[in-house]
UniProtKB/TrEMBL annotation:
Pfam family of the protein (one): Lactamase_B_2
Name of this protein: Beta-lactamase
Sequence ranges assigned to domain Metallo-beta-lactamase in this UniProt record: 34-202
Gene3D superfamilies: Ribonuclease Z/Hydroxyacylglutathione hydrolase-like
Length: 254
C-alpha cells in the first residue's frame, strides 16, 4: 500500500497571504504547503482520500491523480471538507455517487454545507454523495481501517490506522486507550503546528517529541505545519533522529 501527502499545511496554508517571513518567502518547494490531506492507494489500486480541503483540485492536478474511490473525513472544519464539491468531475466520469465515511456529527455538517448534493431534485451538475456513519473499525476495498479518536481542543475527531501506519491530524490530546492502538507502528504521522508557543487545539514540537519517545514508532512524520515552524532544511537538521517533516508530494510505502 501507499500513502501520498497531498497537503501538509495548516488551515491558512504556506505561504500565508501577505506574509514575508523566511518560510513564506522560501524558494524550496518543500516549504510550500497545501491544506492537509493524504491519498491512500490500496493493494487493489483503489484510491482512498483522507480529508478534502480547499486545495483539493490543485492537489489532484499537481500530483497527476485522476481517481478517488472513497473519502474518509477526520472532522468538519472547512480546511478538511470544503473541497468536496470539487469531486464532481470524478462523480460525473464514474457515473455514480462518491462514498464518504465519517462520524455522524461530521456527516450532518456535510449535509448542511452541501445541501444541493442531497436534494431530491438535483440541479444539473451538482455532486452526489453517499454518506456512511463510522461507528468503529470497518473494511473498505479489502483494507482494514481503524478510526483513532483524538481530541482537537474541545472536540473529538478521528485519525486513522491502516496496517502499521497511523495518520493523526489536528490532535491536541490522545487518551491512553487510543495510544494502545498506536503501538508497534512503522509510521506515525501526526500534526505539529509550530515549534514553541502552545496551541489550544494542536500539538507543538515538544508534544510530538514526547509522543515519539513514548510510542516509539520506527519513523514519525509531522504534518499540519504552519509558517511558524522553521524552513524545511533547518528543521531536518534540528529534529531528533526518527522524526521528519512531511512535505507535499512525499510518498510512503507500507
Amino acid at each position: 500500500m501507499q500513502l501520498k501527502f497531498l497537503g501538509t499545511g495548516t488551515s491558512q496554508g504556506v505561504p500565508v497571504i501577505g506574509c514575508h517571513c523566511e518560510v513564506c518567502t522560501s524558494a524550496d518547494p518543500k516549504d510550500r504547503r497545501f491544506r492537509s490531506s493524504v491519498l491512500i492507494t490500496t493493494y487493489s489500486a483503489k484510491k482512498i482520500l483522507v480529508d478534502c480541503g480547499p486545495d483539493f483540485r490543485l492537489q489532484m492536478l499537481d500530483n497527476k491523480e485522476e481517481q478517488i474511490d472513497a473519502v474518509l473525513l477526520t472532522h468538519e472544519h472547512n480546511d478538511h471538507i470544503i473541497g468536496l464539491d470539487d469531486l464532481r468531475p470524478l462523480i460525473f466520469k464514474n457515473r455514480k455517487n462518491i462514498d464518504i465515511y465519517a462520524r455522524k456529527r461530521v456527516g450532518d455538517e456535510v449535509r448542511n454545507r452541501f445541501p444541493y448534493a442531497f436534494a431530491e431534485v438535483k440541479y444539473p451538475g451538482a455532486p452526489s454523495f453517499n454518506l456512511h456513519d463510522m461507528t468503529g473499525n470497518f473494511s473498505l476495498f479489502n483494507t482494514e481501517i481503524f478510526p483513532i479518536e483524538v481530541m482537537h481542543g474541545s472536540i473529538s475527531i478521528d485519525g486513522f490506522r491502516f496496517k502499521k501506519l497511523a495518520y493523526l491530524t489536528d490532535a491536541s490530546f490522545i487518551s491512553d486507550y487510543e495510544k494502545e492502538q498506536l503501538q508497534n507502528l512503522d509510521y506515525l504521522i501526526v500534526n505539529c503546528i509550530r515549534k514553541e508557543v502552545p496551541h489550544p487545539a494542536h500539538f507543538i514540537l515538544p508534544d510530538v517529541i514526547s509522543l515519539y519517545k513514548e510510542l516509539q514508532p520506527k519513523k514519525m512524520f509531522l504534518t499540519h505545519i504552519s509558517h511558524h515552524m522553521d524552513v524545511y532544511k533547518k528543521m531536518e537538521k534540528e529534529l531528533p533522529a526518527g522524526i521528519h517533516l512531511a512535505y507535499d508530494g512525499l510518498v510512503l510505502d507500507f
